[in-house]
Every structure is written in structure tokens, then in C-alpha cells.
Amino acid sequence: MSPRAARYGVPRLAPESPSPCLECGACCFSDLETSVRVTGDDYERLGPAAEDVVHFVGNRAYMRFADGHCAALRIKPSGRFACSVYETRPDVCRDLERGSPQCAAERFTKADRAEARLVQLRRSAR
Questions:
Q1: Are the C-beta atoms of 11 and 79 separated by less than 8 Å?
Q2: Overall number of domains in the chain
Q3: pTM of structure
Q4: Which domain holds residue 11?
């Protein structure tokens, strides 16, 4: 854990231990605007929320990203990560199983992004 993260009480996730998704959120972070593909079925399932969380690049749909994370991700300064469209989330999100090798890879490569965002939120809450 970085000294700044320790100062703000941000838990550092060990890549080998699957944590509850609500305490992680790493898979919801990306710098690519095309990282989460949304199919036609996904778009329909998202319903009215699609207007807020989906964007198009040409004729392809993707989840919208803001501040380095999915627009559907809600982050609380307490360290809780929640998906605002969890029940209707895209198939690619449904397919990422907690504790799977893909989940471990997401945590290994992106846990610092979630940690950094929590530090920012906690600073702005002061």
C-alpha cells in the first residue's frame, strides 16, 4: 500500500485473495472508451439507463467511462463500490466471475486505480 493510501485508510487488495466485489471495483476501471462492449441485447436489457451509461463509437455501443471508471460504478468514500445497473449489466460484466483468473488479472492490473480514486474522493470529502 502506498503511504498516501495508508494515510487515508484505503485497503490494498492482495491479488491472490478474491475480495467481495463491493470492496474492489477494479474491473470497472479503464482508460479505454471502448473497453466494455454493449451488444444489442445488453442495450435493450439496460432499458432507460442505457441513455446515461452507454455511448456509441460509429455503430458500436460501449459502456461510458468517466474519471477512469465505468459511468455505472458508484464509489463511496467508505470504500464501497456498487454498480448502478447491476441487475441489467452487460453480458461481458456478467461473465467476469469473482475469483476467476480473469478477476485476479483485473485486480492485479487495476487495483491501484480503484485505490487512487478512493484517495481522491476522501480528499474532496474533507
A1: yes
A2: 1
A3: 0.79
A4: 3-29+67-124
Residues 52-104: tens digit of each pLDDT: 999 999 999 999 999 999 999 999 888 889 999 999 999 999 999 988 999 99
Residue 52 maps to a domain = no
- CA-based radius of gyration for the chain: 15
For 73, phi then psi, to 5°, come to -80, 130
How far CA 86 is from CA of 28, 45, 64, 73, in Å, comes to 12, 11, 15, 9
Asked if the structure places residue 46 within a domain, the reply is: no
CA–CA gap between residue 61 and residue 50 (Å, rounded) = 10
Tell me how far apart the alpha carbons of residues 8 and 27 are, in angstroms, rounded to a whole number: 22
